[in-house]
Amino acid sequence: MNQSSPRKPAQLQNSSSWKKQLQEALELHRKGEWGEAKNRYERILQTQPDNYDALQLLGVLASQTNNHEAAVALIDKAIAINPRHATAHSNLGFALKALGRFAESVQSYLKALHINPDFADAYLHCGLAYMGLDQQVQAIASFDRVIALRANDAQAYCNRGVALAKLGRFEESITAYTSALHFKPEFPEAYFNWGNALQSLRRYEMAIAAYDKAIAIRSDYADAYTNRGNALKELDRHPEAIASYISAIECKADNFEAYLNQGVAHYECLELETALVCYDKVIQIQPDYAEAHWNKALALLLRGDLENGFQLHEWRWKRSTFSSKRRDFKQALWLGAEPLQGKTILLHAEQGLGDTIQFCRYCEAVQALGATVLLEVQAPLMGLLSSLRGVSSLIRQGDPLPEFDFHCPLMSLPLAFKTRLDSIPSAPHYLYSQSDRRTAWQLKLGSTKNPRIGLAWSGSQQHKNDKNRSIDLAELMCQLPVGYTYVSLQKEIRDKDKAALQEFNIAHFEDDIDDFSDTAALCDLMDSVISVDTSVAHLAGALGKSVLLLLPFVPDWRWLLDRLDSPWYSSMKVLRQSSERKWNTVELRTKFVACDFIF
User: Which residues are 374's β-sheet partners?
Assistant: First the structure.
């Protein structure tokens, strides 16, 4: 988004005593000799403290030298002398906008436009102030007024595109960038924003081409190199992405975002040591940047350094994009320091259902410290966790909470217990299905002579790693042997997988599954479970079922690296994707045979 400098007044007041001095100061101002211009303006104000033009121009100069507080004070004085001058109100709006005082900025621009309804620059910057308030519709209306007054204003079209993109109207934003480039072909910001819109639409190849055009115009365009790297990473072209991030850093040595994304690219190549070096560089530049600490935590956890990893994992609460809301209770957060004998502690779920299933195992250990344990969980897990050992009271998320002395999120419990790989609370199983549900599902399933294998091949489509962790049902079934009865354990079936259910004669009951109590009963009636990394895998492991977990090349941190088992679930075996990052026929068949599973 470009911003032009504030406009200078179109006319000077007539006064024979200071007109020449003011004209000389203004010429120096225009030539960029700002220090001497400032001296001249101040000299005029020494003898004429209420000189409107000197106050106004000195305010403009203050804005141009990023002294916006002084600019506001000076221009306010000028407006008090001449409140009917549209340019002064516009310049005041500019200074207020630079200070982040967007609501006041908008009001200043509106005053300017009340005086001069055809003031195109005031509309332009008023639109930017509206964007600062996240009022994108009003911003678009302002940019439209600019275009009505100046049909070839490339900057207005570009800013209009940014506002449309913020509303998720990416196709319209691309049209706006195209118009901007029609009037100003050498406009790197328009190409950059065009690339961002294309990337939001997952048109990564086209986005890269747009970034390349921006860089061709401005060779030191660090943000374009960074976002180009992001698009390349989405295409799994990690070496090229890393090269693009390095170029961004060469353009801007303290480019912490490029270092972070470079670290993520190395992480996705399982180059964890190099990723950690990048994250440390980010922390050196920006010590309070939560994303860097959190990403460092994931790398440490993935390589098995649980103690240090879980310490840094607490930075998750400071991430702007974290999926769970921090619970700001008046009671103290417990992370293992305070004694719990005779105390009541609230353990509360966060993030996904699988996370709750995995970490509720710590409840019994908390109770063993002498605490009364309250456990708050997501509604679909209420039935499943009703018999969890160590829990005195199970509470549905959103229901009123009883009194308690301490609280702790479930995923902070490994930190509280200083968990290491060799001290993970483990048991053959710690969850149990309900006998009445098993009986009901046994009737639904009927009898079979073949072993039953439960299947979960896809998770939530909203998960950021869904494209890697889920697999098409038809692709999976082509690798599985005959002679078994296959049963879907999924409540939700994607449209593209429905035909495969019929083709491979897979029993499916999504309409009959109410909550995880049903899924647990169904799992318990299976001889084995095959699952991708989703909540069903955690459920099967917690129930002690024989479960084969299919992992993408870059697994979630909890599954570690190079292991065929899981320290979290003793009944689980792990089948990992190769570096080609695809589940192909040969690979799956070979690994199924090699894996000592039910087959």
Answer: 346, 393
